Amino acid sequence: MVDFSLELNEDQLQIQQWVHDFAEKVIRPAAHEWDEREETPWPIIQEAAKIGIYSLDFLVSCFSDPTGLTLPIVSEEMCWGDAGITLAILGSTLALTGIVANGTPEQYEEWAPQCFGTLDDIKLAAFCVSEPDAGSDVSSLRTRAVYEEATDTWVLNGTKTWITNGGIADLHVVVASVDPSLGARGQASFIVPPNTPGIRQGQKFKKMGIRASHTAEVILEDCRIPGRCLLGGKDRLDERLARAREGKSSRSQAALATFEASRPMVGAQAVGIARAAYEYALDYAKERKQFGRPIIDNQAIAFKLADMKMHIDAARLLVWRASWMGRNNKQFSNGEGSMSKLYAGETAVWVTEQAIQIMGGYGYVREHPVERWHRDSKIFTIFEGTSEIQRLVISRAISGMHIR
Ligand SMILES: Cc1cc2nc3c(=O)[nH]c(=O)nc-3n(C[C@H](O)[C@H](O)[C@H](O)COP(=O)(O)OP(=O)(O)OC[C@H]3O[C@@H](n4cnc5c(N)ncnc54)[C@H](O)[C@@H]3O)c2cc1C
Prior knowledge:
Layout: H1 10-37, H2 42-51, H3 56-64, H4 70-81, H5 83-102, H6 105-111, E1 125-128, E2 144-148, E3 153-164, E4 171-177, E5 187-192, E6 199-204, E7 215-226, H7 234-245, H8 254-287, E8 289-290, E9 293-294, H9 299-327, H10 336-359, H11 361-364, H12 370-377, H13 387-399
Parallel strand pairs: 1-4
Antiparallel strand pairs: 2-3, 3-7, 4-5, 6-7, 8-9
Helix pairs in contact: 1-4, 4-5, 4-8, 5-8, 8-9, 8-10, 8-12, 9-10, 10-12, 10-13
Flavin-adenine dinucleotide binds near residues 94, 135 and 164.
C-alpha cells in the first residue's frame, strides 16, 4: 500500500478545474478594469456568489477537506486570475478565520453566515488588527475594549488602519486591548455587528497593487457592543487574563492565532500570481523573436524560466505542507506556516520581476498584465506579517530563543 501521494484526488481536481474556469472566464478578463477603477468589484463578487464560490458553504467544504489542500488550490487558481479581485472575494475569509480561531461554536453559528450574507443580499466582513502605531508589533495595540458590567456591554475606542474591506464590511472582527499591561496576552477579539453606531470608515488608501481590494482605516468611537460579541466569552477571557497576570503561559493570543491559521492560504495566493506571470512569460519567450530566433533560444532566458518554475513548485510544496499540517493539527514547530507564506511571497515578487525582464518594454506597460502582477505581488511580503516577521517566527521556532 502506498501511503504517500502528491496526486490530487478526484474532488480536488474537479474543484480546481471549476475555480480555474471562473478565474479564466470571469476574473482575469475583469482584472485590468478594476485595477484602474480601484474600487470593489461588486459585479464579480456577485458572479462568485451566483456560482457558490463566495459563500460560507463553499468555504466550509474547503476547510473540511482532510488533506487541507482544497483551500490552497482554490486560492492559487483565483489569484492566477487576479489577486486584487480575489482579495475582494476572499477578504471576508480572514474575519471568518478570526471567528473560527477565537469564537465558541454558538458564536460561529450566529456570526459566520453574516460574513457572507445571501445571494440576494451579499455581505462583506473585515478583520481589524493593525493600527497606525502597531503593525508588526501587534502587542502594542491602543484600541481599548472596556467592559460595563451593569449593561453587559463592551465599549470600543481606537483607530485601525490598512483594513481589507474596512468600513464597507457589514461585520467587523476587531482585536482590542482589554488589559494593555499584558501586551498581546491582554487582547481579545470582538464582533462589531452590522449597523452598530460608533464604527466608521476613515481614509481609503490608494495602493500600488491589489487595487480592486478595498483598504481603509476603521474608526471606533464609543462603539458599544453587547457582551455576547466578545469572541470566546467572558469566562474564558477572565481565565486567560488571570493566567497571564500570574505569568503562566496562555494557549492563544487573539490576533496571532488567526494569522497563523491563514498564512498558508496567503502563500497559495502568491503562488497563483507567480504561476500566472511564469506561464505568460514562457509563452512570450517562445513567440518573441530577436536576432532571428525566439528569445527562449538563449540560455539567459530559458534558465530564468527554469528557475521561475522551480521556485514556484517549491513554494507550492511548502504551502501544501503547511496546509496539511494546519488541517491535521500538527504543531508548526519550525514555523512551517510562516515558511510557506514567506517563501511564496518572495517567490511571487521575484518571478513577476523576471517575467517583466523577459518581456522587456512590453512587460513594463499596461497593455500586458505582467506589470500589474508585479505590483500585486509586493503586498505578499508585507501583509499578514512582513517577510522579516516571518523570519523572526521561524528563527525563534528553530532556535528556541527569543531572537529580536
Ligand atoms: C493592502 C493591505 C491590506 C491589509 N489588510 C489588513 C487587514 O485586513 N487587517 C489587518 O489587521 N491588517 C491589514 N494590513 C496590515 C498589515 O498586516 C501590516 O501592514 C503589516 O503587518 C506591517 O505593519 P506596518 O505596515 O505597520 O509595518 P511596520 O511594522 O512598521 O514595519 C516596517 C518595517 O520594519 C520591519 N520590522 C518591524 N519590526 C521588526 C522586527 N522586530 N525585526 C525586523 N524587522 C522588523 C518590517 O518587517 C518592515 O519591513 C494590510 C496592509 C496592507 C498594505
